[in-house]
Amino acid sequence: MKILIGEIAHETNTFSNEKTTVESFKEWRWIHGDEIILKHRKVRDYLGGMIDRAEETGVEVIPMFSAFAMPSGVITQETYKRLISELTDSIKAVAEYDAVCLALHGAGVAEDVDDLEGGILAAVREVIGYKIPVVVTLDLHGNITDQMVREADVLLGVNFYPHIDCYERGIEAIDITKKILLGEIQPKMSLKKLPLMIPTSTTDLPPANIINELCWAHEENEAIIDCTFFHGFPYTDIPEVGVSVVTVTNNDQALADQIAEEIAIEIWNTKEKFFPDIDNPEEGINRALKIEGKPIVINENSDNPGGGTPGDGTHLLSAMIKANLENACFGFIYDPEVVNIAHERGVGASIEVLLGGKTDDMHGRPVPIKAYVKTLTDGKFIQSSPMGRGARVDYGKSARIVVGGIDIVVCSKRSQTLDEQIFLLHGINIRSYKIVALKSSQHFRAGFEPLAHEIIPVDSPGLSSFNLYSFKHTRLTKPVYPFIKEIEFSQEDKVK
């Protein structure tokens, strides 16, 4: 039994003015063949799960092409064509195979291509036809489309946000593929789309965790292979944006339709609960200072590079400096210019620089600071978060600078903060700090909830703000909640 495996993953924030290019992917991941095995074996991600499960069960996996770019703006047409050709050429180079397993995302957008994943799958089908099974893992922030359902045999979404179950979905992809090849199952899928967009919502808390429990209860039925609540990615201006439910059954289309409908109704009935009140940075800091115990983690949701933002926003950092905080740390802000100055001047130097705010005005202006250079590093470490544990991370040259009572980590590559490793790399033990600030929406919870005394999300202007009204969606083809309150959820929204 031979299964081809590959990956093309990008979460596209169409409101970003930064185009995503081949170089954007090569900065993070652009690998072929056996290097995929070497990079992902024993790593808790989708491909890691596929590889480990195949090796455990005696299945031969043939690695093709793996590309990942940090969430950012629309993928250029040239890059889209290159991604497709790299993947399909690698398939054509293999003489014999029985199935294909792909790790995609679900919220990719290229120039003139609203549905990146649908386009990828259609291109794969042109090469392999429709008799070879194709099983796909997706992010729960996927904006699932009709074309994705048509072109794949099975779509499997992660259930958790933070995405601590990517590895398990990779395992499941191999197991389901084997069952299809052995004739044990004949998957039937149903997609139910809702006229609803929600901000990024953790599944650690209600209402998302309650919806997941309803999905899992249905999965106790042996006829139901999978039931996934896809949150959608609201920072994408395409007609297909929004929440959906995908149910996969063993050769029972009617049951798939029924369960998808039931879960969709439950989501719709609790939709208001997905819109909590969030503090601004000043309010969050004031709250944190009144709480006994430490560390208090403040996450800057609105400048989350994991959602396509610049990562150099200064709203929260400015508020921390203005508050004259003591015993506080910030990890991290993207500013290669400041990093280079710190490395040139060396440890112990005093530098006067403009920190952050260099991408746009939305995320805050550059902050004039006089800082002490405390630590210099290469920005490399092994990820410890349950999400992607074991991955080798490289944030480029980095520095720890001190402004008053605040230790600030500055890096040369943009990313959200997933665990404490970037702090530890710079000699910062977050357990000894009163306030620990970072940029992330929900993924940080996997690494920080066990360490934090309390977590306070804050929101301000930014490309991943909880305030969906701040985004001008111009391409919606039908009314969507919360922009239109007086809409009803009906059978007309069903797509198979």
Automatic annotation (TrEMBL):
Domain Microcystin LR degradation protein MlrC C-terminal: residue ranges: 300-475
Annotated InterPro entries: MlrC, MlrC_C, MlrC_N
Pfam family for this entry, one: DUF1485
Annotated ranges, domain Microcystin LR degradation protein MlrC N-terminal: 2-289
UniProt protein name: Microcystin degradation protein MlrC, contains DUF1485 domain
Organism: Peribacillus simplex
Organism classification: Bacteria, Bacillati, Bacillota, Bacilli, Bacillales
